[in-house]
Amino acid sequence: MIKQIGIVISKEGNFAKVKVKRSSLCEKCKLWKSCGISKSSEIIIQAKDDLGVKKGDLVFIALSEGIFLKASSITYGIPLLFFLSFAIISNVFLKSEVLSFLFGILGLSLSYLLIFLIRKRFSKEEFNPKIIGFYGKNRIF
Domain residue spans in the chain? Predict the structure, then answer.
């Protein structure tokens, strides 16, 4: 389970917006320099709230490694698979590197279209972190 401490900055229904410092996980990721999320030292995350938090609460938020891996696979794995498949198959039949590259780009584009079309099958709540507890009893605001 990936855990992080943050501060609740607002509450909307069963979800709370939590400000957290960029975690050490970001620094271990090979793409952290190009990720828009990690450019700031603090990020705001929408987290599921089953505990009734209030603005100013210090809380623990968590996301399971399985969900993290699933999201990474969808984001990076599917497009890579489509790109390589289209490029390799077109190279076998067309024997042209330039056309293989262009078909690879076509496969990449189709993968993003596919992900866009099936995105509603994935529960948004499934990919949201969850508030799992309070950190201390003091409110900040």
Answer: 2-139
